[in-house]
């Protein structure tokens, strides 16, 4: 197993009490597997990616749980040990809005070479940078340009190149297609598919766009209000969703057969004042009396999916 997150709880202190961004989350990614994590804004997706990267800082804190990477609990490591042995070398990340993350006063090549220097890359920096540009289908001359000279898609590809600078086996892509046009979104996803095939890296893709996920992932997790609502293979999640929340997400995507969009009524609950029972009950068209009293646990269905819903 490449990555195993077990009963992870991440809380943020606030004047109103603890905001439970993640409250008992499990997630696994096998070697060479592409896993998707989906849910609406504020459900805890980016918090999970930051926790795996050890980038949770006050007022946030990892309350409890384990994050096992290749069998080692990275939460038990000191900051220096994790930074030297894992961050970027083994666990790299494409941050949400990363195409705006380049320093404007340095060229793309200079910023990639800084990563190579920090992580003590043994080869020639200029040659490696050129190879990385080709890997993400950019002209090597792009390395000599400043960020403002690149299009959004070029900057996103350049950041992917920087994330892969020292050949990490695991890549987190947090909303990698945000603010890009539809054609560029498809190109970025095709690039990630090609990198997975050629380099065998494991990828965790985080997005609210289920249509994009359906094109690339092996398995998908659906997150709601800091808890897992459903998980299964890509075919199960996208063709036979079980949880009413997953069904709502799927229903909000227009298709060639129908352009009718059915949104999910209501809003996600306040994570600092969560209601009892199922956290989706107030928005669920199938809610029963038990839903408002007892929280459902993830249970395996006869089809092999796992869903946290009293309907099953």
Sheet with most strands = 8 strands, mixed
Please give the count of helices: 9
Overall shape: globular
Sheet-strand content, in percent, reads: 15-25%
Identify the strand order in the major beta sheet. 6-7-8-3-9-10-12-11
Task: Please name the CATH architecture of one domain.
Answer: 3-Layer(aba) Sandwich
The CATH superfamily of one domain is P-loop containing nucleotide triphosphate hydrolases
Structural class: alpha/beta
Tell me roughly what share of residues is in helical segments.
Answer: 25-40%
Give the rounded overall mean pLDDT.
93
Please report the distance between the alpha carbons of the first and last residues. Answer: 29 Å
* Rg from alpha-carbon coordinates: 20 Å
The strand count comes to: 12
Write the element-wise H/E pattern from the N-terminal end onward. EEEHEEHEHHHEHEHEEHHEE
- Poorly predicted runs are none
Looking at the structure, the CATH topology of one domain is: Rossmann fold
What is the CATH first-level class name of one domain?
Alpha Beta
How is this structure best summarized?
This protein has 9 helices and 12 strands.
Characteristics:
312 residues, alpha/beta, Rossmann fold, 4-stranded antiparallel beta sheet, 12 strands
Describe the structure.
The chain has about 300 residues and is of the alpha/beta class. The protein has a domain at about 5-90 and about 170-265: Rossmann fold (3-Layer(aba) Sandwich). Helix content is about 25%, strand content about 20%. It has helices at about 45-50, 80-85, 110-120, 125-135, 150-165, 180-200, 210-215, 235-240, 245-250, and strands at about 5-10, 20-30, 35-40, 60-70, 70-75, 90-95, 170-175, 200-205, 220-225, 225-235, 300, 305. Strands 6-7-8-3-9-10-12-11 form an eight-stranded mixed sheet, sandwiched between helices. A hairpin with a 6-residue loop joins strand 1 (about 5-10) and strand 2 (about 20-30). Helix 4 packs across helix 5. It is globular, with a radius of gyration of 20 Å. The model has no long low-confidence stretch (mean pLDDT about 95).
